[in-house]
Design a protein that fits this description.
There is one protein chain. The protein is globular. The chain has a single domain, classed as Beta Barrel (Thrombin, subunit H), CATH 2.40.10.220. It has a six-stranded antiparallel β-sheet with strand order 1-2-3-6-5-4. It has one helix and six strands. It is mainly beta and about 110 residues long.
């Protein structure tokens, strides 16, 4: 995939992450369908658990409730975990509705 994505957003690791247990199927141009298990998510990106056959900068498209299709770039991968950055920041109202859908346990949601 050449040089990979030219990522412009600075490190967003301080963004509020919400723990989730959400499985998605990502679309990848070389691999086709990629099964991913999202374990935390923010308006800027998400982390998956499990080994992926992807290199830094590669892109996947996933579908999230209340957000729809969104592209993400692999930022890091280590010890069976991988971090992705969304191509765009998810709007707050869409993000909160999505969290209500994929993390129905209010005790696990961050305070608003």
């Amino acid at each position: 995939m050449g040089a990979g994505a030219q990522l412009t957003v600075t490190d967003m690791r301080r963004a509020a992450r919400h723990p989730v247990d959400h499985k998605v199927i990502g679309e990848h141009r070389r691999l086709g369908d990629v099964h991913m298990h999202i374990v935390n998510i923010s308006a800027h990106g998400f982390m998956v658990q499990g080994d992926l056959d992807l290199q830094r900068g590669e892109r996947v498209v996933i579908r999230l409730p209340d957000v729809g299709r969104i592209e993400a770039h692999l930022i890091w991968s280590s010890e069976g975990r991988s971090g992705f950055q969304f191509e765009r920041i998810i709007r707050l109202d869409d993000f909160m509705r999505m969290i209500d859908t994929i993390q129905p346990n209010p005790r696990l949601r961050k305070s608003r």
